[in-house]
Amino acid sequence: MKTTGILLFASLAVIATSCSTTSTEEVAVEPITYTLDKEASSLEWAGSMSPEYGHTGVVEITEGTLVMEGDDLMSGSFVIDMNTIKSTDLEEPKAGYLAAHLMGTAPDEAHPVDLFFNTPKYPTVDVTLGDYKDGKLGLTLSILGKELTQDVPVELTSDENGAWIKGDFSLDMTSLEIPGLQPNPEDGSQINPVIDFKLKAALNK
After folding, report:
1. Which of 82, 152, 157, 181 has its CA 20 to 30 A from that of 26?
2. What is the tens place of the pLDDT at every residue in 111-153?
3. What is the three-class DSSP state of 90?
4. How many CA atoms lie within 13 A of 162 on its CB side?
5. Angstrom distance (rounded) from CA 127 to CA 142
6. φ and ψ at residue 180, rounded to 5 degrees
């Protein structure tokens, strides 16, 4: 009887250990890396000098990755090609002049420019993702050799096929002291350094 009890206890211990191992294996989640689907992604911008005067446009996201572990964001980064910036509210040639101003490249001698984003020297804006919590995503942008960190409201979702980041938000670029966004010394007028964005980033597994 004593031997039977020992064998029974040993069997229960083996079963318990087996169940514990199985449970741990089920909980473990492998990180998944998603890669930008450039054609399905877009970034729209809107800037203004006053409620009555402003412009809208687009700029391309050319690279991007996102690493998710279940529903948790582990890391991510994107590259924005500033040489692709375009106006969507103007016709040519005005659209070309505005794009040149924003890129910091003169379309011709008759239209000198302020160095807004100086794309000959800084052709890209690099974006690093931080934490995603309570519907807000931490962003750190490298612009003109400086960094801008801000939390923005977006929706981040993922499944076995892909991941998506969508949202409307604003970035305050005051701290970057971007030429062209500074007050006019003659009359004090200024383009609003708070720029509005509409983001749709699609990534594939």
Report:
1. 157
2. 556 578 999 999 999 999 999 999 999 999 999 999 999 999 9
3. coil
4. 12
5. 6
6. 100, -20
Which pair of structure tokens corresponds to residue 78?
């994107």
Are the beta carbons of 11 and 17 closer than 8 angstroms?
no
Q: Which residues of 121-137 are buried (b: 16+ CB within 10 A; e: fewer)?
A: ebebbebebbebeeebb
Cis (ω within 30 of 0) for the bond into 193? no
Structural contact between residues 201 and 165, judged by C-beta atoms closer than 8 angstroms:
yes
The type of residue at 86 is: K
For the chain, strand residue ranges (E) read 32-36, 42-50, 53-69, 72-87, 124-133, 136-143, 146-153, 155-158, 162-172, 194-204
Q: Where are the domains of the chain?
A: 1-30, 31-204
Mean pLDDT: which of 78-82, 97-101, 185-189 is highest? 78-82
What is the pTM for the complete model shown? 0.82
